[in-house]
Amino acid sequence: MKNLFAFPTLRNLAALTAVLLLLVSAPACKKDKNDDTYFRFKVDGASFEATGLLAYGVNFSSERSFYGLKDQSSTETCYINVPADVTPGSYPLGGGAYDAYYIDGSNKTFSTNWGASEGTVTIEEIDETHAKGTFQFIAFDSDTETVKKTISEGEFNVVFR
Asked: At residue 84, what are phi and psi to the nearest 5 degrees?
């Protein structure tokens, strides 16, 4: 009995069929929506990154918040609050409807609502399921309003829970 794959035409047909099956089935392999979620920045030059389930958004009745948690056992976190009806654009942080918080590993809170804080958040995309944007701010401590943290190179892509 002759091997059918010894003929070049049949060998090419088999290879073509395999490639077509791969192309047809590849779109069915769907990535988990949490695979592309992140909330990252630098705090006084040190990198901070939250990914997957540790980077998320929450829709409250009057505001939306974007969170990044360092890890499940740490208090170190950062979050940004914006009005519920926010649209894409750049907004100043502090003393109003737009504010940001950083909580360090010792549970000390810094905010754009205290001291001579300043910063911006830029919303690039936002809908009912996700938000994406950038941010930077200088935040002061809640105790004396004199100790500051500089948050730079911030970016987020979060899914609302």
From this structure: -60, -30
Residue type, 90: S
The single residue listed with the structure tokens 């519920």 is 84
- Chain centre distance of CA 71: 14
Tell me: pLDDT of 27 over 90. no
In angstroms, rounded to a whole number, what is the distance separating the alpha carbons of residues 11 and 17?
10
Length of the chain (residues) = 161
> Residues 54, 77: contact at Cβ < 8 Å?
no
Tokens of 52: 């997957």
The pTM score is 0.78
Could you give the maximum distance between any two Cα atoms of the chain, in Å?
90
